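STRUCTURE:
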């Protein structure tokens, strides 16, 4: 492993731990040349299907694209980066379970919206506005009405987030 600080390839593993939900290994390493420490993460290389876009172009699945879009939707919302990572992990697991060589981008987007709707309605609306390309306030109203019908219109913190009680809550 090459040191990110000095570029030397000699290092020793100082600590090894199981990472997020047991799907990755986190290793603390120390460079034998400069003495600085750095972290590496290892995960099983998975084969994910290619993504078919609306215009029929095909692209390799890119985890970072999904992660970035979810992070943007969740900006300034009480949703941890760790929860967003777990959402992406669950979506990827579902893609693997499909066993398909190719999947429509709509499938990925709908799974992301389902996940966001379950934890934070406002983040879901932000995601939906881009994913579904909302052009009018009527489309937003229709989305909120659908959330109301399914009983998922709460914009408060979800329990999975491990969210601390609200600072406005006098009982907290």
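SEQUENCE:
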């Amino acid at each position: 492993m090459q040191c990110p600080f000095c570029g030397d390839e000699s290092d020793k593993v100082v600590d090894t731990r199981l990472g997020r939900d047991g799907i990755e290994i986190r290793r603390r390493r120390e460079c034998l040349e400069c003495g600085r420490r750095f972290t590496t993460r290892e995960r099983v290389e998975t084969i994910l299907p290619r993504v078919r876009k609306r215009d029929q172009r095909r692209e390799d699945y890119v985890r970072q694209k999904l992660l970035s879009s979810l992070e943007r939707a969740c900006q300034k919302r009480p949703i941890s980066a760790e929860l967003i990572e777990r959402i992406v992990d669950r979506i990827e697991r579902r893609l693997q379970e499909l066993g398909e060589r190719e999947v429509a981008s709509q499938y990925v987007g709908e799974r992301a919206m389902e996940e966001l709707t379950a934890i934070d309605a406002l983040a879901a609306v932000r995601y939906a506005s881009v994913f579904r390309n909302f052009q009018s306030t009527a489309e937003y109203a229709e989305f909120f009405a659908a959330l109301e019908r399914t009983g998922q219109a709460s914009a408060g913190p979800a329990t999975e987030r491990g969210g601390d009680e609200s600072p406005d809550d006098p009982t907290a």
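REMARK: The beta strands are 11-18, 24-31, 37-43, 50-52, 58-59, 102-104.
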